[in-house]
Amino acid sequence: MSAPAQDKPLFPFGPILFFGDSVTADLTAETPPLFSGPQTVARGIGGQSTRDMVRRLRSDIALYGARGLHLIGGRDDILNRDRAPSLDRIVADIAAMLQDARDLYVRTWVGSIPPVDPDAPGAAGLPVSLIGDVNAWLRDHVGTYGAQFIDYDAVLATETGALRPGFSDDGLRLNAAGYAALRDAMMAALTAPGVEQIWAPPESEDAVRRRKFLHHFGYLDSNTRYPSPFIQFAGKPGASHYGVPFDADGFLNAAPIVERKPQGETRILVVGDSTTIDGGDIANTLPGRLERILRAEGLDSAKVYNFGVMSSCLTQMTHLIWSRLVTYAPDAILVLSGSTDLFQPWTYDPRPGHPYNAFITQRLYDHFFDTHDPRAREDGLSYEALITLIYEELKRLRAEVGWQSPGWEDAIIHHYALAAHRLTKLSHDHHVPIVSVLQPTILRKRHLTEAERGVASGAFLAYLDRQYAKLEAFTAQLAARRPYRRTFTALDLSGIFRDREEGTFYDIVHYDDPAREIVATRLAVEVRRLLAQPRFPMARVRRFLTGGRRR
Q1: Other CB atoms closer than 10 Å to residue 459's CB: what's the count?
Q2: Predicted confidence (pLDDT) per residue in 5-15, tens digit
Q3: For residues 431 and 484, is the Cβ–Cβ distance under 8 A?
Q4: Fewer CB in 10 Å around end: N or C, the chain?
Q5: DSSP string, 47-64
Q6: Contact at 8 Å (CB) between 296 and 208?
């Protein structure tokens, strides 16, 4: 927005990011002149959940240099019939965004979710009462994050809390008059006297690193990384991911896999990291989409199981296959890896090949159970002291392993290669077709959107680019190895979105639903190829003698 010639800019302290779902997208579209200048950045995306918003907020703030943030989120979670929203999930996501904004010293306003008319035909069957619940939480809690709450009900709602009829044509969505009322209330709050930039205090280099560590510390979620024998962690049984509970084994399946395969079932197992369990519900995950595609193409017996584990590295995946999955008589196993092995050592446990939280587990266990040191039973460890204990161990390990040195980078690739070679042996020894997939990455996408250009710092992207080039070269070598061709395949999908012009990635490796469909379709091709091949030597001989006809 251009400032009036006679007045000072509305936002003198810097750009304000207008961030959210369809409410913000439609608001900014209603008044293009207000949201088209250098002081205002329109970043509302229709249909986005609060979880989608969490993933892109930090990169949007960095990309546009935002010093202010106006946030409305949760409406599209609640009014989308394909989702299963909950108050806890929505407010947890909003709290994470408020924490990110506070960590980055961004002045923040949080608007209430606009009301709807619960008697409107379009509201039937929707959990519209959640709107009031979320707004009540915002009213009571945003101040603890240094943010200001803007109550849009004051101008949009009737005395009973329903959306005023004149502000909507269907009882759900605001019309032009509704957005005008919201905009006037918003601008009154954003341009109130005394609103200034929040200045970050001077920090030492160690203080900056500790602040970054504290941000990442918030992602150590026991619901998605619950201790599990032999594989370090999996999902917590019964806990939910996108509203879908993990099964009794800690995986995102409607029911746990049974050891004895049902007669006639073609059993495909998908092993991976968070990209394997993302999607919002089971049907939208990569394994869910893969099963649908295979059945639509005539393989009615296909049953695809999801063994994705948040933050899992390839060594963990290999142990999962060896210790549990080969006993399930799989017809094929797909393993998607690569990125976690590269970026976890940069942020979490810096030791190449280690699970991302291994150093935390070891440090806490040693603190509380060292029988030669009684201090743990006497010091009454506080949460703040616990964080310091972990952070100091992180610093010590980084110095010990030569964190970010060329030798450290090479060691990460070496440990990945060791795990991949173990996979080849597993595949050969157990006669199980395994496809090791180097997962897609934003690093290989040529046509980046504005949001995609700001997903990470330059130094981090340069590191990942170097490391991914090494993994790509290793994958090519592994694909050419003759001894394992009969059962093992190495497949490089790092550049599958190389020429895609649409926005695809939320960060380095997490991508949207249309992109997930593209990957699932490509994996279906690989699965059909595997299933068409005989698995055992005598089967190959019979196939040769019968001219390639399958029995």
Answers
A1: 10
A2: 334 455 666 78
A3: no
A4: C
A5: T--HHHHHHHHHHHHHHH
A6: no
